[in-house]
């Protein structure tokens, strides 16, 4: 399986950020073809220190080829343009294969 992870630093205005993320950005992301799951973690805590991140979004795809096709889609281009408009200075994105570790 393949995952795109977006790590968002703390926004200056949390309420405004959350409203835009929930009402505009997440619906755009859910339209990206091949996206199987969108998981969002907010108000993150760190052990012994303040977390450098406010929100982490994980977007799951079945495989790397589906991910590559999704990234080239018009739907993803719209989502990318949107994230840069409201959080371009806050977000770092990474992607890669992932697996569940059992045992």
Describe this structure in words.
- Helices cover 38% and strands 26% of the residues.
- The chain is an alpha+beta fold.
- It has helices spanning 14-30, 64-71, 74-87; strands at residues 2-8, 37-42, 55-61, 91-97.
- It has one domain: 2-Layer Sandwich (Alpha-Beta Plaits), CATH 3.30.70.
- The mean pLDDT is 96.
- It has a four-stranded antiparallel β-sheet with strand order 2-3-1-4.
- Based on CA inertia axes, which overall geometry fits? globular
Predict the CATH topology. Alpha-Beta Plaits
CATH architecture: 2-Layer Sandwich
Q: Provide a count of the helices.
A: 3
Largest beta sheet: strand ordering: 2-3-1-4
What is the structural class? alpha+beta
Into which percent range does the helicity of residues fall?
25-40%
Give me the count of strands. 4
How would you name the oligomeric state of the polypeptide chains in this document?
A: single chain
Keywords summarizing the entry:
103 residues; alpha+beta; Alpha-Beta Plaits; four-stranded antiparallel beta sheet; 4 strands; 38% helix
Secondary structure layout:
Blueprint: E1 2-8, H1 14-30, E2 37-42, E3 55-61, H2 64-71, H3 74-87, E4 91-97
Antiparallel strand pairs: 1-3, 1-4, 2-3
Helix pairs in contact: 1-3
Compact description:
This protein has a single domain, classed as Alpha-Beta Plaits (2-Layer Sandwich).
């Amino acid at each position: 399986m393949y995952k795109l992870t977006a790590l968002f630093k703390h926004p200056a205005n949390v309420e405004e950020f959350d409203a835009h993320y929930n009402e505009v950005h997440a619906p755009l992301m859910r339209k990206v073809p091949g996206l199987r799951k969108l998981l969002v973690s907010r108000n993150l805590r760190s052990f012994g220190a303040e977390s450098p991140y406010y929100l982490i979004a994980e977007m799951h795809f079945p495989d790397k080829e589906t991910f590559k096709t999704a990234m080239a889609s018009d739907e993803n281009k719209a989502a990318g343009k949107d994230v840069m408009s409201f959080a371009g200075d806050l977000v770092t994105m990474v992607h890669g294969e992932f697996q569940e570790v059992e045992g």
